[in-house]
From TrEMBL:
<protein>
    <submittedName>
        <fullName>SnoaL-like domain-containing protein</fullName>
    </submittedName>
</protein>
<feature type="domain" description="SnoaL-like">
    <location>
        <begin position="9"/>
        <end position="102"/>
    </location>
</feature>
<dbReference type="Pfam" id="PF12680">
    <property type="entry name" value="SnoaL_2"/>
</dbReference>
<dbReference type="InterPro" id="IPR037401">
    <property type="entry name" value="SnoaL-like"/>
</dbReference>
<dbReference type="InterPro" id="IPR032710">
    <property type="entry name" value="NTF2-like_dom_sf"/>
</dbReference>
């Protein structure tokens, strides 16, 4: 599988809310660093994310792929996130992935975006 296909599969699984498919793209010990959820095992992160999500829609803007020289790829996309309570939040983000040695799974994901516009809605959702 190419790195680009791995990234396309990731966005597709995210859009579909398919927990099994998104987990299948990560190594067993993969970590996610998120500005809202903190540092979690990837399997736990996506379980929490999908629990907090009614709907996701991503629009890919850019792919920054240095995987031939290193093991990193970054996706820049717009995320239309409908929270479980129905509140829609929209933002641009960058997901920076570190690939495993075989370059067929993600080892680590660092998510980068400004949480200020959605922090209150997220905190309200987590309190309920």
């Amino acid at each position: 599988m190419t790195t680009r296909q791995l990234c396309i599969d990731y966005l597709k699984a995210l859009n579909e809310g398919n927990l099994a498919d998104v987990r299948g793209l990560f190594s067993d010990n993969a970590k996610v660093v998120s500005p809202l959820y903190g540092v979690l095992d990837a399997f736990d992160f996506y379980a929490d994310l999908f629990k907090d999500t009614n709907r996701s829609e991503t629009s890919l803007l850019n792919v920054f792929d240095s995987s031939e020289m290193s093991k990193s790829v970054a996706l820049h996309f717009r995320y239309e996130w409908t929270l479980a309570d129905g509140k829609l939040v929209s933002f641009e983000c960058v997901d920076v992935f570190e690939l495993n040695d075989a370059r067929d799974r993600f080892e680590k994901l660092t998510i980068i975006y400004d949480t200020a516009p959605l922090r209150q809605d997220f905190d309200n959702l987590r309190r309920t």
